[in-house]
Amino acid sequence: WPPMLLEIENDGYGNECTKASAQSCGECIQAGEKCGWCIDKDFLKQGEQKSTRCDEIEALIKKGCSEASIENPRGTVSVNKNQSLTDRTKDGVKLKPDQITQIQPQKLTLNLRSGEAQTFNLIFKRAEDYPIDLYYLMDLSYSMKDDLENVKNLGTDLMAEMQKITSDFRIGFGSFVEKTVMPYISTTPAKLLNPCTSDQNCTSPFSYKNVLSLTSQGSQFNNLVSKQQISGNLDSPEGGFDAIMQVAVCPNQIGWRNVTRLLVFSTDAGFHFAGDGKLGGIVLPNDGKCHLQDNMYTMSHYYDYPSIAHLVQKLSENNIQTIFAVTEEFQPVYQELKNLIPKSAVGTLSSDSGNVIKLIIDAYNSLSSEIILENSRLPEGVSISYISHCKNGVSDKGENGRKCSNISIGDQVMFEVAIMAKGCPSNGKSETIKIKPQGFTEEVEIVLNFICECACHKEGIPNSPVCHFGNGTLECGACRCNEGRIGRVCECSKDEVRTDDLDANCRMDNGTDICNNNGDCVCGACECKKRDNPEERYSGKFCECDNFNCDRSNNKLCGGHGRCECRKCICEANYTGSACDCSLDTSTCLASNKQICNGRGTCECGTCKCTDLKFQGPTCEICPTCPGVCTEHKDCVQCQAFGTGEKKDTCKEQCNKFILVKKKKKEELPQPNDQPYINHCKERDANDCWFFFTYATKNDSTVEVHVAEELECPSGPDIIPIVAGVVAGIVLIGLALLLIWKLLMIIHDRREFAKFEKEKMNARWDAGENPIYKSAVTTVVNPKYEGK
């Protein structure tokens, strides 16, 4: 890829178009999607480089290039093959697998412009009753003896279950043990015949054997599998990867069709992978080719085990979806393996494989419900992105944009695919890529054509006289110089670029720098330097001019009201001054009375300069020391309209500056809608009566006053209601105070009574005798009485 076509970071000034320094239209359009090339022969100004023709479209138009003269080819997307999505059954006629379409469209052609993404939609729909090929690959080491008994009836049982999913189902069977070399198996003659103990009858060890190619006869599966015998090996990991590789790369022997391909890998042990073969002296990497002879893998002693990456590649190439049916002990190992192999699943196998049918059905439903798009290797500089639009309005992008989950039969999903190229490939040729759903044979073919040249390139005139006596090709309005020639019109050879004589032609006089230090002397002519900011340019025969060193106003070049040409401002209409900062428009000076600066100043550069020092403000209408218009003319209006007021005796002499118009009522006075600039006044006379008038200055500076003859005088007070109101108020206040006093007394009495009742209940009476009490009866004892 040419270095000049690499993507350039935008550092704040400039853009990818100007920074590319493109010398031709083709180089320009490869710099970025926004770049255009001006083919107008008279576009370049004196001193400007050829690369000035390349810039963003808006910038070229600002520089004076018409839209019709700008080359700006755009990319396109065209659909070449677009068969409709189909179902498995159509009009009651069963379709062949190759007649079923699940992805649309099938072929497209993209014309790619550098930096411009081309977007198209892919639609996928799961077909009903889609055919399935299932190959059951089983570990026949001794530990799987009880599993083999349950698998012997797998054919018919699985066929019955799969008939619920598809009417076109085929099943095959293969087995594996281990490489037939030490230390994986015992190579003694007796152990080669029977690797098990003497009381067990086992078959000879083998690497991989294709027992039954894919068939629709479930009974044939049962018959052949029932004849299989267990074998044995020495180490715990098995040689299953050898078997998977042969199943993937031997489609003819296995009998794979272009339908859904399922590989069930059943084992209760781990696996050997690339590098483990060194233990047996096997160092050649697995070649990924088919080596089945008489349905037996014959090169296990010659090639090492395949690597995981190699398996992933071959499984993906052959659209095989893998189901690992392994025991609980090895679940973690195969879960990690599943994460490395696309479109694979792991199921927990019971110790005797009794749940294998349920495991297969669940794994198939899991695999088929997820759609993942993958693409072939992309050409250098080409990138691709996906946005998924799945069920229930769910969308995603990035890596998750490649897939949709929970897809049922008949569901339709869409993927938005965007492809973008940076630059052009060195050979400029078309490339083809393919996109397909993982695990499916259908694919979308995409032809990529790269737009590397402009349309005007074909109209180039080789050896044109315009290019200095035929030293270049006149192409797209500019000369593309022949090898060894340079200059704007190829006027110089590279050998004579720098000489004293030519440099002298690039000085304004003997005391100045070459091209005023703003350019390079090329073939005796100045080519002005480019600025970081593409809006700023040097120009002129000696690069003595520029468009960015003019006077500024408000930090804007030429005040934002002109353009800078050769360091002088060319002002727009209605602006003048060295920085175009003086406006000739007087609309900003109009006062509210439509007079310029209120008749008390002059308008200079759009701003009022007040000549009457009492007035100020943007339109000389503010007078802080002046009385109001209404107050100022109150006495004159009063004396002219009513013959009263302080100026009634001198009315004619002092109050003749306005025209008085009388109206009956204030409602008849002019309103703002009648005269836009009018003052409404309301003033009080000596009798406290209000009178109303309006004051307006017309465009001819005459003042017109309209006054209402009807006065608004306040009426005298009505004594009777006032007295009655006062008396009523006093009575009401007295009653209110009496009621409040009565209420407070009731509350106080109730509190005292409650307190008395409480003390009464709490009283306790003492039952003892009164110490000062003396009885009225006195008892005297006769001292003589002896009781006789």
Brief summary:
20% of the residues lie in helices and 25% in strands. With 788 residues, the protein is an alpha+beta fold.
Question: How would you describe what is shown here?
Answer:
Residues 630-718 form the Integrin beta subunit tail domain. Residues 16-66 form the PSI domain. This protein has 788 residues and is of the alpha+beta class. The protein contains 16 helices and 44 strands. Helix 5 packs antiparallel against helix 7 and helix 8 packs parallel to helix 10 (308-317). The relative contact order is 0.08.
What is the 3D form? flat
**Straight-line distance between termini:** 164 Å
Mean pLDDT: 84
- Proportion of β residues? 25-35%
- Give the class from helix and strand content and strand pairing: alpha+beta
**Strand order of the main beta sheet, please?**
4-8-24-23-18-21
Count of runs of 4 or more consecutive helical residues: 16
What's the main sheet like? Answer: 6 strands, mixed
User: What integer value in Å does the Rg equal?
Assistant: 53 Å
Number of strands: 44
Helix content: 10-25%
Q: Stretches where pLDDT falls below 50 for ≥5 residues? A: 1-12
Domain Integrin beta subunit tail: 630-718
Organism: Cyprinus carpio carpio
Family: Belongs to the integrin beta chain family.
Subcellular location: Cell membrane; Cell projection, Invadopodium membrane; Cell projection, Lamellipodium; Cell projection, Ruffle membrane
